Amino acid sequence: MNIAFFLVAKSEVIYLSPKNTMRQALEKMQYHGYTAVPLINNKGRYVGTITEGDLLWKLKNTPGLNFENTDKVLLEDVPQRVNNIAVRINAHMEDLLTLAVAQNFVPVIDDNDIFIGIIRRREIIEYFAKKYISNFDNEK
């Protein structure tokens, strides 16, 4: 099945720019209750995912950095420990299963590498659970 049916469009996705600050990321993540947010550059391209862990490690490993001065650190200067993989809009749900094991969401890009949205892990799991139950019921 094509993933377009499960796409959460960019207009409905909370995302940040690499030019946003750590403070902006922390506040946005707290407000929305997210642990990871996609990073989209000024050309609209997906450039990575920033996680709470990335922010915490940066805070821990940067001498003199504390919450009060996180507004001085750009997200482009925060190392990302995990490289979340994006897929193209013409991918199939089967392509997403292994990615969903390690990613909260799978970023989706178009043929020009422009970010167009995400597929959440929840939808991927629900899709395969329904497929499994349907196959199980058909075997009876």
Order of helices and strands: EHEEHEHEEH
Roughly how many Å apart are the termini?
A: 24 Å
Q: Could you tell me the radius of gyration in angstroms?
A: 17 Å
Question: Strand portion, in percent?
Answer: 15-25%
How many beta-strand segments? 6
Main β-sheet, spatial strand arrangement = 1-6-5-4
What is the approximate shape? Answer: elongated
Query: Share of helix among residues?
Result: 25-40%
Structural class: alpha+beta
Q: What is the arithmetic mean of pLDDT?
A: 93
Sheet with the most strands?
Answer: 4 strands, mixed
Individual helix count? 4
Poorly predicted ranges: none
Any key phrases for this structure?
140 residues, alpha+beta, four-stranded mixed sheet, two-stranded antiparallel sheet, 6 strands, 19% strand
Strand and helix layout:
Layout: E1 8-9, H1 22-32, E2 36-40, E3 46-51, H2 52-61, E4 87-88, H3 93-102, E5 105-109, E6 115-120, H4 121-139
Parallel strand pairs: 4-5
Antiparallel strand pairs: 1-6, 2-3, 5-6
Helix pairs in contact: 3-4
Write up this protein.
- The protein has 140 residues and is of the alpha+beta class.
- It is 36% helix and 19% strand.
- The protein has four helices and six strands.
- It has helices at 22-32, 52-61, 93-102, 121-139; strands at residues 8-9, 36-40, 46-51, 87-88, 105-109, 115-120.
- The strands form two sheets. It has a four-stranded mixed sheet with strand order 1-6-5-4. Strands 2-3 form a two-stranded antiparallel ribbon.
- Helix 3 packs across helix 4.
- The mean pLDDT is 93.
Write a brief structural summary.
36% of the residues lie in helices and 19% in strands.
